[in-house]
Amino acid sequence: MNKNFFEIKDVTFSIGGMNKVNDVNISIKNEGDIICILGPSGIGKTTMLRTIAGLEKINKGEITLKDKVMSSKKIHVEPEKRNIALSFQENSLFPHYTISKNIYLGLKKNSINNKNINANEIIKILDISEILDKYPHQISAGEAQRASLARSIISQPDLLLLDEPLSNVDQSFKEEIQVNLKKILNDNRVTTIVVTHDSYEAFYLGSKCALILNNEVKQFDDPYNVYHFPNSVEVVNFLNRGILLPAKVTGGNSLENDDLGIIKGKFIKHYPTGSKVQLLLQPEDLEHDDNSNLKLEVVDRKFRGTNFIYTLKTASNRLIPVAVHTHHWEQHEINEKFGIKRPIELEHVVCF
Prior knowledge:
The chain has helices spanning 45-53, 99-109, 119-125, 141-154, 171-187, 199-205, 223-228, 233-239, and strands spanning 6-15, 18-28, 34-38, 62-65, 68-72, 84-87, 159-163, 192-196, 208-213, 216-221, 243-251, 254-257, 261-267, 276-281, 295-303, 307-313, 319-325, 337-339, 344-349. The chain is of the alpha/beta class. The radius of gyration is 24 Å and the shape is globular.
């Protein structure tokens, strides 16, 4: 049996005597993999990182890294002996050092290491070359966050923990930094856990995502499955990428909704004929067709760059989101009728 590079087994994460996330089982199979911990603010994500780094102790379960127990009820390896780097969301730079000195402090810590990380390349990719001679109080929050990130990567840790690493980065710059950050981590095979409340960020950066809701890991899977095959209503509601419609199962590959009629597709889970279910319908599931006899009223339209997201009102006053490519030849205005292609066929049918 192959062992995982990093593993959390049955750990309950707590702080100040209060349990934050219970009975967690998460693993990183290979060195260099990136996983994301996703969830709303205040759910316990930062507590998990602090505990993995050794800043908090555990009373249940076990945390292992490279086949060595870091934390258990009886064992607690001190933070400085774990070779784990934690980059906090807030500014953690030393105020009396220049940005350059702050960054290269990490390099001194691990001057002998089997990784060949190019500090200058990391500084360039993170776009902080122009601030190296400045002090933390002279730079923006986003620049400070990227400098702290550079220091953590340069320290060549066995495991890098990033707490909301791009929360202070301007939106217009964030996507470029995400691409650069992923390239740095992949090129240097830096095993990383990223904490974020942004599902788009988690789906891009992580090969797997652990979604934390209601004090537990609701789903730990690759991003595609978390999005397209959510395992609970709670996951659907958090991601907010679709709606749940009441429907009745009419056969092995079909069900019926009062507003949309017959819907066909492969069921992810078997339901007996006649079962009443909640059908997950995501914006990309329905297709636009003005020649269709099924027309719904447009009540809202959001521009999303490559897509418009139309919100349509059904006869029973339910609201359905439908994605249409921006280059579509005809745009619909509020109160206009919008045709839905029939027959409705889904790639997969997810119900609860």
